[in-house]
Amino acid sequence: MKIKLAESDHELEQILQLQEANHFSKLTDVQKKEQGFVTVQHELALLRLMNEKEQHVIAVDEDRVIGYALVMIKDMQNHIPVLKPMFKMFEKLSFGQMKLNEISYYVMGQICIEERYRGQGVFQNLYAYHKQSYRHKYKLCLTEVSTSNARSMRAHLKVGFETIHSYRDKTDEWNILCWDWS
Q1: In the sheet that 57-61 helps form, which strands lie side by side, from edge to edge?
Q2: What pLDDT, on a 0 to 100 scale, did the predictor assign at position 78?
Q3: Number of domains comprising the chain
Q4: What parts of the chain have a pLDDT lower than 70?
Q5: Of 125, 151, 6, 107, which Cα lies nearest the Cα of 65?
Q6: Which of 113, 165, 178, 180 is an S-S bond match for 67, by CB 3.0 to 4.6 Å?
Q7: Do residues 69 and 110 make contact, with C-beta atoms less than 8 angstroms apart?
Q8: How far apart are alpha carbons 168 and 15 in whole angstroms?
Q9: Which residue range forms the structural domain that includes residue 24?
Q10: Rounded CA gap, 15 and 23, in Å?
Q11: Which 3 state secondary structure label does DSSP give 80?
Q12: pTM of the entire structure?
């Protein structure tokens, strides 16, 4: 298995396949509780645009994407309407003594590991590669996780994220998580 930056449409298409298979609408309640889930679905054109701004981090086994962690910079917020409230929330929040919008950050837009590769360190390796690749440009990595996605919450906290805010919207209750690289 290799961790690398996404480089081709073929890799992006495989991300979309993995995303589709793990979307909350495709899973049973038991699967969501035990294995976690993803909330947002992307289209190839958007995933490509995001990757042109900052490349996504992927885990590949024998030329097949088995995990991914998407990079979404601030100026992508208008391209994904369902995430606009999250970015609006960021404008109101602080980390330490500074407002988030005064700190260089990007959003880890979504992370997903193929089920048979879970529990083998892929999640941690994807995030380690994120940090190695982007810490020179960004002080913080932010993400948002549903409070009902206990597996994802545990994994993010284990990597080094901390919850800086929680809120409820019309769809769910969310934790905003921050990983400080400064």
Answers
A1: 2-5, 57-61, 64-72, 105-113, 140-146, 173-180, 162-168
A2: 86
A3: 1
A4: 34
A5: 6
A6: 113
A7: yes
A8: 28
A9: 2-180
A10: 12
A11: coil
A12: 0.90
